[in-house]
Design a protein that fits this description.
globular; two-stranded parallel ribbon; 275 residues; four-stranded antiparallel β-sheet; alpha+beta
C-alpha cells in the first residue's frame, strides 16, 4: 500500500516523495530528492541452518541450533550509481520471542522475513538508509501483526523480534549505500548525506545533532572478544562427570578454553528466568 504522496508523485513530474508519519509529527521521513539519495532496486534473502557443537542454555532456555538470515540488496543513487550490499543476522527467537516455542518462534521469524523482503523490495521512496527505515518501519510493524494473526500465535510477534529480522535488511541497505559512494557507511551519518538530524526521531533537544556525533566513522584496529559461558556449560573437570566428552580436538570445559584461547573476558549466562 502506497501513501497519498507516493501516488501523487507517480501522477506528477515534480519530485515529490512519500513521507512517513514521524514520531514528533513535523519532519517527513523523506523529502525532495538529493544527489546522495538511493532507491532500492532488488532484495533477495535466504536462510542458513547450523547445528551447535553442544547445547547452549540461557534464561531458562536451551538451544542446539541456529538459523541465519542473509539478505542481499541492490540500490541505485540519483546519480546513476548502482551497488549491492549484504546483511546478516541470527534469528535468535529464544531471546527475541521467548513466549513462543522453538518451532513456533523460528517459524514466525522465517515467515516475517519473507514478508519484509516483499515490503523492502516494493519500497519506491528515495533517501539515506535511515530515511528509508523511517518509511519501512511502520509497514514492518503492521506485517508482524498480520502474521501473528494469520499464524494464530499465542502472543503477537514482539517489536524486538521484528527488529531482529528487519536488521538484516537494514544492514544490507546501509552496506549498499556506502559502496555506492565509495565510503564506509559509518562516514555517511552526517549532514553531507543525511536529510534530517536526530530531532526527527528523538525530539527537539537533538536539533542540529547527527548520528556521526555518537557513532565513530573509523573502525578500531582491534576489538575485545568475550567468551560466552552458557548456564549448562561445564566449568571444570568435575562438571564432566556423567557427560560424554566431545572428541573433536576442542576443549570441553571452561577451564580448558582459558589457556587455549588466552581468555581474559567472559560473558556468563544465568539459568535464572526473570518474569
Amino acid at each position: 500500500m502506497f501513501s497519498r504522496r507516493t501516488l501523487l508523485r507517480r501522477a506528477c513530474v515534480a519530485p515529490i516523495v512519500a513521507a512517513a508519519v514521524p514520531r514528533f509529527g513535523r519532519t517527513p521521513a523523506v523529502i525532495a530528492d538529493r544527489p546522495n539519495d538511493i532507491r532500492i532496486l532488488e532484495v533477495r534473502h535466504e536462510f542458513e541452518d547450523f547445528q551447535y557443537r553442544a547445547p547452549y542454555q540461557f534464561g531458562g532456555r536451551s538451544v542446539d541450533r541456529v538459523t541465519i538470515l542473509n539478505v542481499r540488496c541492490r540500490v541505485r543513487s540519483n546519480g546513476g550509481r548502482e551497488s549491492s550490499g549484504f546483511g546478516s543476522m541470527t534469528l535468535g527467537n529464544a531471546w527475541a520471542f521467548p513466549a513462543a516455542s522453538q518451532d513456533a518462534g523460528l517459524g514466525a521469524m522465517r515467515t516475517l522475513a519473507g514478508r519484509l523482503r516483499d515490503i523492502t523490495a516494493d519500497c519506491d521512496d528515495k533517501g539515506h538508509p535511515i530515511d528509508l527505515f523511517r518509511v519501512l518501519e511502520p509497514q514492518f510493524i503492521r506485517a508482524a501483526a498480520d502474521i501473528s494473526r494469520a499464524l494464530a500465535l499465542p502472543v503477537p510477534i514482539p517489536k524486538l523480534c521484528m527488529l531482529v529480522v528487519a536488521s538484516a535488511f537494514d544492514a544490507a541497505i546501509h552496506d549498499a549505500y556506502g559502496k555506492a559512494f565509495g565510503r564506509s557507511v559509518y562516514d555517511t551519518y552526517g549532514p553531507e548525506f543525511m536529510s534530517h538530524d536526530l530531532s526527527a526521531d528523538l525530539g527537539p533537544s537533538f536539533r542540529g545533532e547527527y548520528l556521526d556525533r555518537y557513532v565513530p566513522s573509523i573502525p578500531r584496529p582491534q576489538m575485545p572478544v568475550f567468551h560466552s559461558v552458557g548456564a549448562s556449560d561445564p566449568l571444570d573437570a568435575s562438571d564432566m562427570q556423567g557427560r560424554t566428552r566431545i572428541e573433536d580436538g576442542l576443549p570441553n570445559t571452561f577451564e580448558e578454553w582459558i589457556p587455549r584461547d588466552g581468555l581474559i573476558r567472559f560473558k556468563i549466562k544465568s539459568g535464572v528466568v526473570f518474569t
